[in-house]
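[Primary structure, fold]
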Amino acid sequence: MSKEVDMRAADGDRQQIADQLKSALDEGRLSLHEYDERVASAYAARTYGDLLVLVQDLPRPGMTNAEVKAQARKAARRLPTALLVLWTIWGALVAVNVVVYALVAVSITDFVYPWPFWLLVPGVALGAVTVGVQVIRDQNGKQ
């Protein structure tokens, strides 16, 4: 656990969490009973960790439903941005090579060596890296 979470919370911190809980109540994200329990816990909290637990399942105050859904979709996306970029580049290269191969094969009557198959090598390597990253992320998520 990080040291910031174990630090003592101030009265202002407790009030800020209580205000965030009030916003969640006003938006209909919490029932009155949940709000009462959480506010009582907020004022009884000793550390930042105690406070953060009370709002970890709530979005920022004032977020629209569309923003919450967009944030959830982004969080659910399993592939890191770097891998998405690499897969996009690889896909574009494959598409260009297949189109060029098709144009050459149509315009020449002789056999044309199917060089686009060589692009499977970096594709398989990229696939292996993607699977490895997913396995590591799943293991880290279960800890």
In short: The first helix runs from residue 3 to 6.
